[in-house]
Structures are given as C-alpha cells and as structure tokens.
Amino acid sequence: MTQTSEDVTWLTQEAYTKLRDELAYLSGPAREEITQKIAAAREEGDLRENGGYHAAKEEQGKQELRIRQLTQLLERAKVGEAPAATGVVAPGMVVTIAFDGDEDDTLEFLLASREYASSEFETYSPQSPLGTGVNGHKVGEDVDYELPNGKKASVRILKAEPFNG
Q1: Nearest to 114, CA basis, from 147, 96, 95, 91
Q2: Which of 39, 67, 91, 164 has a 20 to 30 A CA-CA distance from 118?
Q3: Confidence (pTM)
C-alpha cells in the first residue's frame, strides 16, 4: 500500500514508543482486567439492573475503540523522520501563518498528529480545518479554509520548517 502525506502520521520515536506501550497495555493487562470486572458483575445476578455490569461493558467498548485507534495510528506512523525543508507545508513541520495576511497577527504551530503534543508548540492535526487548509501549500501563499462554523478564513504561510524536537 502506498501512503500519501495525508495517510502518514508523523511521530517522534518517544511518542511512537509511548503509544506502542499504551497499545500493549490496553491489549493485554487492561483487557484482562475488564474481562474480570464483567465476569464479577455477571455473578451478581440480573444483568438488566446491574449498574456495575453496564459500566464495565461501556468501559470495555471505550477501551476497544482506543485499541483500534492506536493500531491504525501506529500502522501509518512515520517515526523520527521530519519532512525535508522544501518550503511546502507537510506533517512534521513547524508552520508560521499570518491571519488575513496581517503579519502582526501570527500563529506558530506544529502540524502533526494530536497524539504528539509538543510542549514547545501548539499542535494542529493535518485533519483539522487549519491543517487541511495549509497542508501541501508553499511559503508565501495565501490560503482560504473553512472554519467549523462554515465561515471562511484566510491565512498567509510565512514559514514552514521541519520540526527538530
């Protein structure tokens, strides 16, 4: 399968290891714990009015969803390789934009998976409205994108540099 830049989730080795460890825990010990909780709640009797059983089943559903999310994320992760400094915005880059072309109203952010949160930069997902708007565009370009409320916003891309965190 060929991956496009939208399919790839760029992660540092540290973030990848953290997520891989979380997946291992959820798939192993945590799964066993929730199975035991469900079994214990079943032994209490009538399942229709058994709050502990229903809570454990809900917790199990959330846990299985997280396992699927992590599995998909890690399958398409690109680890430790920041994109090249080509002046084109891509995941793994620190991007500086000016709102409505006003260079006094700027935002600098890391375009990366929300799973990788940098304490150094605000992080925007490539799937977010802003991330989708700037991804693939060049420094100096003006880009319009749609806000969640349906309105349009305009930004100028001032800088796009590989993240070296």
Answers
A1: 91
A2: 67
A3: 0.58
Q: Are 146 and 152 in contact (CB under 8 A)?
A: yes
pLDDT value of position 3: 42
The pLDDT tens digits of the residues spanning 74-126 come to: 888 877 666 667 889 988 888 999 998 777 889 999 888 766 655 677 888 88
Look at residue 18 and tell me whether its pLDDT is greater than 80.
Answer: yes
23-27: long-range pairs with CB below 8 Å, 24+: 23/67, 23/70, 23/71, 23/74, 26/63, 26/66, 26/67, 26/70, 27/67
Phi then psi for 97, rounded to 5 degrees? -125, 160
**CA torsion, ordered 79, 164, 109, 13, to nearest 10 deg:** 30
> In whole angstroms, what is the distance from residue 127 CA to residue 145 CA?
12
3-state secondary structure of 125: coil
**Joined tokens for residue 6:** 């939208």
Phi/psi at 37 (5° precision): -60, -45
